[in-house]
Each structure stands twice: as structure tokens, then as C-alpha cells.
Amino acid sequence: MKLLLLGAKGQLGQALLKQLQQLQQFQYLALSRGQLDITDLSAVATVMAQYRPDVVINCAAYTAVDNAEQQAAACIAVNATAVGQLARLCQQYNSLLLQFSTDYVFNGQSNKAYTEQDIAAPLNVYGHSKLQAEHFIQATCSKYVILRTSWLFSEFGHNFYRTMLTLAQRGQVIQVVNDQFGCPTYAGDLAAAVLQLLQRYQQQGSLAYGIYHLAGSPAVSWYQFAEAIFAAHQLKVNMQAVSSTKWASLALRPGNSVLNCDRFANTFSINSLAWGPALDCLVAKFQKDGQKKYSG
């Protein structure tokens, strides 16, 4: 089975590529943005026509939530327009499209975890762009799995985990929002779940297509997640909990973006993504490989 991995140098792309290399089960072509910009519609069409993948895994995304408020056209071009073309091409070549979406498609006003049946109502440009991509895929592609995930962290790229370690080095007061709740998700765990899906698709030739929530557990606030990171690293830092209303941010963010992942677990019988053990593994890697790799 031939896989086309787009956005191979992003946080999730690197996690997937690492596991694909270890698994050695699939033939794959992994392309970074430098090798294939998915907004270059002609270039994407050429790659699809030449490679004819059985599965397209789209990890390419515009993820700078605040910047998107001022660069809406660029965000929509990557997250929506390009994905719309991918959906059409996947339909043309009978490819499965595996797309990643976000908890930010919700407005955060619910007092419970969001299910796939809850109405999406994004608060920011980034959320709107990802929801638009979902609609494009549903309208165009018959073989797709959209995974809504949240709060990705890992040893790769720019993320909250690495930012907290960088701030801890500076010895200053660290202010963290305590009134936004979500599900931290280790990119490596998400990648492992994706590969389990692909193994099933390879064996069965089909999947229960649709939209699923797949994120870590348990749900916490950003402040609680920061506390867990510092505790795992045995770091003593001066933390200050702040309200999101007092935090300078261009984009509005949902107060509650906790995802209910029961549908995915019940459909595919794949274990939930507990972020605590993943954090412990990252600490072990940190201690083995050195601090520089994991802060940034």
C-alpha cells in the first residue's frame, strides 16, 4: 500500500515519519513544504498523477492561530482551498484521505466534552479554515477519515511543552492561562493510532469513514498542563495563573474545547491517548538526549 505523507517536517509529520521508518510496512513518499507546497495546486496534481497513492495523509497546515487573524488568506489557502483540491484528487484516484482537524471548530460554550454530533461554530480564522476543509472533504470525497485533535505536543517543532521548558530556563515568572480547558495530545501517540488505522485499512480494504475525535486524556487547563510538565521534569518555577481575558491574543479561543473520543474508541477499538505516560517518556528522552533538543 502506497502512502503520500504531506507536511512531513511539521510536528505530526515528523512523528509519523519516524514511526513509518521503524515499521517498514508501507511504501511511502514523504514530502515537506519545501518539497511540495500544497497551495501549489498544479504541483500537487502532478505528484498525485505520478505517484497514485492509496492513502494521502495530510499533515500540512497553517497552525499559527494568532497570525491567521491578520493573514486569513494565507491560512485559508493552506487549510481549506488546498485541502479541497486534495479531496477532489483523492476521489479521482480512489485514494483514502486522512485529514487532521481541530478542537477549535467549537466555540467552547458547552459545559461538557464535545462529540462529533455537536454543532461546530469556530471563534477564529484558524478554526473556520479547518471547518471549511471538513466541508470540502465531505462534499467531494467518498473515502476519508477526519481526525479532530487538540493541543499537540512532542519533541518536534513549536509547541506548548517545548515553550514551557524554554521559559523555565529564563528563571522569570511564567504566566499561564487557567480558564481554557482541552486535551493535550502527544504527537507520537496520535501517529501510532493513525498507523493502526492504516494497518486495518490495508487488511480490510475499507474503514468506517467519517469524522472522529482523537485526543489525549484527561482534560486539563493550560495551567494544569504546565504544572504537569514542570513536575515531570522536577523543575521549580514561579508560575502565575492568569485569565484569558487578560492575556494579549489576536484570536479568540474556546474556553472549553475538550473532545469526547468515545466514538473513535468504540469504532476502532484503539486505546485512548493518555498524555501522562507520554509526558514521562518525553522526560526520559530529554534526560538521555539533552535539554537543547526539547526546548525551543
TrEMBL record:
Keyword vocabulary terms for this entry: NADP, Oxidoreductase
Entry function: Catalyzes the reduction of dTDP-6-deoxy-L-lyxo-4-hexulose to yield dTDP-L-rhamnose.
Entry-linked InterPro entries: dTDP_dehydrorham_reduct, NAD(P)-bd_dom_sf, RmlD-like-bd
Protein name: dTDP-4-dehydrorhamnose reductase
CC cofactor: Mg(2+)
Pathway: Carbohydrate biosynthesis; dTDP-L-rhamnose biosynthesis
PANTHER family for this protein: DTDP-4-DEHYDRORHAMNOSE REDUCTASE, METHIONINE ADENOSYLTRANSFERASE 2 SUBUNIT BETA
